[in-house]
Amino acid sequence: MASSWSDVGASVNTAGTRGYGTPAVALPVLAGNIISLALGLIGLIVFGYGIYAGFLWLTARGDAKQVTQAKETLQNVIIGLVIVGAAYAISTFILTAIMGATNPQP
After folding, report:
1. What DSSP character marks residue 4?
2. Rounded distance, CA 69 to CA 16, Å?
3. How far apart are CA 25 and CA 72, in angstroms?
C-alpha cells in the first residue's frame, strides 16, 4: 500500500508501462487500430471518388461519353464501398474473437 500521496501518483503514472513511459498495448488492439485507420482512409478516398463521379455527371451537359464514364465510376464506388464494409465487418469479427480468446471475461 502507498505510504503517501506522491507514492500513489507515481504508481498510477507508471502502471501499464514498459519502462520508458510508453503504455503497453496489446497486439490485437494495435492491429485493430491500424486496420481501422486504413479502412477509414480508404473509405474517405472512395467517398472522394463518389463526389468526383457526381461532379462528372452534373457537368456532362448531354455528353454521352462523360455520362457513361460517370456511371462506371459510380458503379466502382459502390463496389468499393461494399468491399470496404465487408473488410471492416470481417476484421471487427476476427479481432473481437481474438480479444475474447486472449482476454476472457470472468
Report:
1. S
2. 54
3. 43
Do the beta carbons of residue 70 and residue 53 sit within 8 Å? yes
Residue with cell 459502390: 78
**What residue type is assigned to position 103 of the chain?**
N
What CA–CA distance (Å, rounded) separates 98 from 92? 10
Q: What predicted TM-score, i.e. pTM, was given to this entire model?
A: 0.65
Residue by residue, pLDDT tens for the chain (106 residues) are 445 545 444 544 555 555 566 666 777 778 888 988 998 899 899 999 999 999 999 999 989 999 999 999 999 999 999 999 999 899 889 888 887 776 666 6
Tell me the sheet residues that pair with 23: 17
Tell me which amino acid residue 82 is.
V
DSSP symbols for 43-62: HHHHHHHHHHHHHHHHT-TT
For residue 93, which amino acid is it? F
Domain ranges (residues) in the chain: 26-102
